[in-house]
Design brief:
globular, mainly alpha, two-stranded antiparallel sheet, membrane, 2 domains, single chain
Length: 379
Amino acid sequence: MSITLQTTATQRFTALDVFRGITVCFMIIVNTPGNGDTSYSPLHHASWHGFTPTDLVFPSFLFAVGNALIFATARFQQLTQAQVLGKIFKRTLLIFLLGYLMYWFPFVHWNETGQLAANPFENTRVFGVLQRIALCYAAASLLIYYTGWKRALLISVAGLFAYWALLFIFGDTGSQYLLEGNAVSKLDVWLLGPNHLYLKQGTPFDPEGLLSTLPAIANVTAGYAAGYFLQQKGRSYETLAKLLIVGCVLLAVAYAWDLVFPINKKLWTSSFVVLTVAIDCILLALLVYVIDFRRSTQWNYFFQVFGKNPLFIYLLSEVLAILLSFFRVNGQSMYGVIYQTVFQPVGDYLGSFLFAVAFMLLCWVAGYILDKRKIYIRV
């Protein structure tokens, strides 16, 4: 395993850095509330069908992965096919492994008697956020490398229709899109067994499972297409207008598709993909307008810190949260002690939100130190 430390910053697209940074920032906030039961409703995922602002965070990160691929594929032209494939598969394996180890970490837990016991391999979750990022990155990179971004986008769109058909064909009659009996759960249980899956309401079901990764590839290829379009056409009002029009058309398509294929983040339905890509196109256009046309840059740097080391800061946030939950003070986790002592006194909901913001700012400080030292960690 190797992590490259770059001591000089490369030429960057400010709006894309800010877009990535906003995504990571809110990813941390929604993942680390002081108390999940008392989080404000917009900071919760939709319980099943439907959509909340929180549901936009992960697909936006995948969209940003697609944006970043533009720079990687530009370097691919200078490499042999073997070198390109080596880079793609090495990065995929590393990100996937980091995600897997994060769920296993810290490899021990407190048992009912207050003693440390090993976390057994047979109960370790295999798929997850970083794992989906790795698989989508690999699929999108290979498609773009071998077919070009236009064909890659068309193939991933075809994947949305294929996924719709798979859920319908292999789901139990009348419950294709319900928690139990859907094709996503069936494949994961058959492939990995229930002990390697996330438990939702006591049912083995992984929202980042293998089959539901198929439609998520389109979030990455769409991010590539949007970023490529901006770079090739230039940052003009005509370019932004076209990006906004695409976003608005996709919004209409998403809600029309929702009538027959419900928007569902946990199943990552095709209508969910179209909806999130639509919103991301609109948000990216607005960011380019504000940053490059209005020259409003005073607030940029805060999010750029996150955007320059996105995967590292996200992984850092998860590891810190795990460690705070693991270490105990008088039999209670440090995570709970800090929340109840410092933040809960101001109110259950406000305290939970302020805890998440404080945790996010702690991660920002780590990113700030790296940026000031011109260190950019590429996983």
